[in-house]
Amino acid sequence: MGLFTDSYDLFCIPPIMRLIGRRYYDNPDPNKRYEVPNPISSTMVAVSLLGTVIGKLVFGHLGDLVGRRRVYGLALMLMVLSSVGCGFSICTSQACVWSLGFFRFLLGVGIGGDYPLSATIMSEFANKRTRGAFIAAVFSMQGLGILVSSTVTMVVCTIFNAGTKPPKDQTPPEADLAWRLILIIGAIPAAMTFCWRMMMPETAGYTALVEQNVLQAAKSMEKVLDVSLSQIAEDSEFPPNPPPPFYPFFSKEFFHRHGRDLFSCAAAWFLVDIVFYSTNLVQTQINDKQFKDKLKVNVYEDAFNVAKFQAMVALCSTIPGYWATVFLIDRIGRVRIQMIGFSFMALALFAIGIPYSNYWYKNTKNIGFLIPYGLTFFFSNFGPNTTTFIVPAELFPARFRSTCHGISGAFGKVGAIIGSVGFLWAAKKNKNGEYDPTRMTIALVLLGGVCIVGMIITYLFTRETVGRSLEENEKTKPKSFVS
Description:
By secondary structure, the chain is mainly alpha-helical. It contains 19 helices and no strands.
């Protein structure tokens, strides 16, 4: 439910920005589109992602320092309070987005904290045979969050539209209530989950290996598995060994043992998020083409159309990609899935990008365009978008696991900022308010090249973790960078 709330809060913004744009940025020129100016919308995206970077680093480190369970509830509570704060943003004319941006930053901090803690807790509760499927199932809730956020937006807009029926050239004051309601609803499932998180015991891995309290770890597993203490047996192919020597995070020993793994996790996550968040460029262009008559619809119908397309993409490609990973990751392994995902994403982006300015630019409503576009989402989720969430939770020792996951994810969100903001500026809009097709061609081909780099890094540096216990992964040293 934490990952569900993360996704709901992140992906409800595109239709909400349409509501805010029509409410506060109506253009007196009837031939111009209603929208929040590009610099402001870019800033809104960037502040949320920046908060996520900070949240991953801070909460990831705290998860190793004071325990997963203690910090887990704090991250969720921050998400709940900031979601409500977003709904109660102070709005006086166009100053609305600055107040909303502040609470979106805090929301990003909470979301960022949820990533490393959720992955680490799930990895330490799961067994080695189904660990990948369990962590992937946690991450797959993002797809459901996208679908539910779009559905809630469509329902709210339908209710408000039926109640007021505003003309296309007027935005009623009630539209301000509509987007607030959508944001506040996102806090409900997170608040309901808070009590469950507080009743969750600390993971046995952290209790035994970091706190050095083996008896309490056994009692925690007795509670989780609902079996007697005598039935809990150690499942390991290695004979009992003394604990490894202590070494701090910032040390030559750490980077000798785990530097390669940290590089592979952070680099792959950085690259995939550049591509994953840059696809919003294409989605915006499709929305503009699909709903080019939006000047002929009112504010609620405009937001409804954006949410509907987002829901269609989630149903047809995003959610199937997540669940394909759930069913196959413990059969074919993390590295293979990550390489398959990167390679097919590259092919799909080349198929869109190379002929874009000469063909697809005029035919984005064509089903031939939507197929490769949907495949980029499918193979992102049946590929690196999911595996980069899983692998950092499996490779590192218990006392560094949450920290290293947070660092890897923070690099990913830096890539997301580059993807969602940098490419948004690279593919500038022309005088007609559309993205320049030549620039879009260059941007899409570059994104395909980023996927090729990701595939190479995966092949050269990423270790396979399928079928291995967390202790085995820790004891097996990766090859050095030189070899």
